[in-house]
């Protein structure tokens, strides 16, 4: 178990600075998720933690000890990537044991015990004799995770481990990773994704990154309820927050007014009117898209049973205590 502290961390590739001064504390045993758009520096930051990438300036502290110059193998970390990188000619067992066979001090019995324990945690026990090609994508990714577990790391680093899986497997493997964190509650996990749903469902805390800087750090609900910027407001939550401008914003004393689809109520005396352009029926919920003359359609979350005809006019009102007001710089007005 390790705490990780990043102090004014910077990373440049040649003349280009991609990590621009990051301060962050990751607690022992915490599940921290880095989320942000493609290219914002998530993978680079994870590689700085792993030691696979050199730090340009600033400090990386593990358990109070500066590790800037410590080799990756000495950091007590294990990493799982988007591509599973399994050895195709080795059985699941041998793939999971491979890292251990390279390390000193593991006899056959110790290796078997560790592999079987990891296999049990990941429900892979029935597959130990199979080859990777005889597994589904989700099972292969679990083998890659299992290979990391057998090494008994203090810190687990994941870089978009679910990106290669189809939607159903992604959800199943996501639940597996969440369970794993509960079982290995002494292990610190740092998880990179561009998918805010993964971030919301897995994280103890989320660190939203934008263009090499931290935009906000907080629990999923803190980010959802009190976004520190227009950027976070638009990034966290699904469907994304609606933004209203011009007179509708001015009437509330701001440049941009934000309201989530779940906080709009359809009512005959609603303060805003829009034309239904599309309805998505998801079963439990429906999302009704309204043209209100804003840059993007306004989405209203309604009961699954409710139906709205395209072309119909609908009046809605925001729940007043759920309105978000932003200034021209995208900062919240309280
Ligand atoms: N080895 C490298 N050499 C030069 N530029 C790099 C290198 N690795 C990453 N970058 C650049 O750093 C920025 C951040 O990349 P990355 O950390 O991979 O982003 P993310 O994982 O958030 O998509 C990108 O602009 C990328 O092109
Ligand atoms: Mg990346």
Describe this entry's structure for a reader.
With 334 residues, this protein is an alpha+beta fold. It has 2 domains: 4-233, P-loop containing nucleotide triphosphate hydrolases (Rossmann fold); 241-326, Nucleic acid-binding proteins (OB fold (Dihydrolipoamide Acetyltransferase, E2P)). It contains 9 helices and 18 strands. A 6-stranded mixed sheet has the order 6-7-8-3-9-10, with helices on both faces. A 5-stranded antiparallel sheet has the order 13-17-14-15-16, with no helix packed on it. Strand 4 and strand 5 (65-66) form a beta hairpin. Helix 2 (92-102) runs parallel beside helix 4 (137-149). The longest helix has 17 residues, at 167-183. 36% of the residues are buried. The model has no long low-confidence stretch (mean pLDDT 94). The structure holds adenosine-5'-diphosphate (ADP) and magnesium ion. Residues 13, 18, 36, 38-44 line the site of adenosine-5'-diphosphate (ADP). Magnesium ion binds next to helix 1.
Please name the defining characteristics of this protein.
334 residues, alpha+beta, Rossmann fold, OB fold (Dihydrolipoamide Acetyltransferase, E2P), 2 domains, 6-stranded mixed β-sheet, 5-stranded antiparallel β-sheet, 9 helices, 18 strands, binds adenosine-5'-diphosphate, binds magnesium ion
The helical percent reads: 25-40%
CATH architecture of the largest domain: 3-Layer(aba) Sandwich
Nearest-angstrom radius of gyration?
23 Å
Look up the CATH topology of the largest domain.
Rossmann fold
Main sheet?
Answer: 6 strands, mixed
Count of helical segments? 9
Order of helices and strands: EEEHEEEHHHEHEHEEHHEHEEEEEEE
**What ions, cofactors and ligands are bound?**
adenosine-5'-diphosphate, magnesium ion
CATH superfamily of the largest domain: P-loop containing nucleotide triphosphate hydrolases
Coarse morphology: globular
Number of strands: 18
Terminal CA distance reads: 39 Å
Task: Give unreliable regions as ranges.
Answer: none
Strand content: 25-35%
Q: Reading side by side through the largest sheet, how are the strands ordered? A: 6-7-8-3-9-10
Q: Just give the CATH class of the largest domain.
A: Alpha Beta
């Amino acid at each position: 178990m390790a705490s990780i502290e990043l102090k004014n961390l910077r990373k440049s590739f040649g003349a280009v600075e991609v990590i621009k001064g990051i301060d962050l504390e990751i607690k022992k045993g915490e599940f921290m998720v880095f989320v942000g758009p493609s290219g914002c520096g998530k993978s680079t930051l994870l590689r700085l933690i792993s030691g696979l990438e050199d730090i340009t300036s600033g400090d990386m502290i593990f358990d109070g000890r500066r590790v800037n110059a410590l080799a990756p193998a000495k950091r007590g970390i294990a990493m799982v990537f988007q591509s599973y990188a399994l050895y195709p000619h080795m059985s699941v067992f041998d793939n999971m044991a491979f890292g251990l066979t390279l390390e000193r001090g593991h006899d056959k019995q110790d290796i078997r015990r560790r592999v079987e324990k990891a296999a049990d945690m990941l429900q892979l026990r029935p597959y130990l004799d199979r080859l990777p090609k005889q597994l589904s994508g989700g099972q292969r990714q679990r083998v890659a995770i299992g290979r990391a577990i057998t090494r008994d790391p203090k810190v687990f680093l994941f870089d978009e481990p679910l990106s290669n899986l189809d939607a159903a497997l992604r959800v199943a493997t996501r639940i597996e990773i969440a369970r794993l964190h509960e079982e290995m509650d002494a292990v610190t996990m740092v998880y990179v994704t561009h998918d805010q749903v993964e971030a919301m469902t897995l994280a103890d805390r989320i660190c939203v990154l934008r263009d090499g800087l931290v935009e906000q750090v907080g629990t999923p609900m803190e980010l959802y309820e009190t976004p520190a910027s227009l950027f976070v407001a638009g990034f966290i939550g699904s469907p994304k927050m609606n933004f209203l401008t011009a007179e509708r914003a001015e009437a509330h004393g701001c440049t941009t007014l934000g309201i989530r689809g779940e906080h709009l109520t359809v009512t005959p005396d609603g303060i805003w009117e829009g034309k239904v352009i599309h309805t998505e029926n998801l079963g439990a919920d429906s999302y009704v898209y309204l043209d209100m003359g804003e840059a993007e359609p306004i989405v209203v979350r309604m009961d699954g049973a409710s139906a709205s005809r395209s072309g119909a006019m609908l009046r809605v009102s925001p729940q007043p205590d759920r309105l978000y007001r932003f200034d021209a710089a995208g900062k919240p007005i309280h």
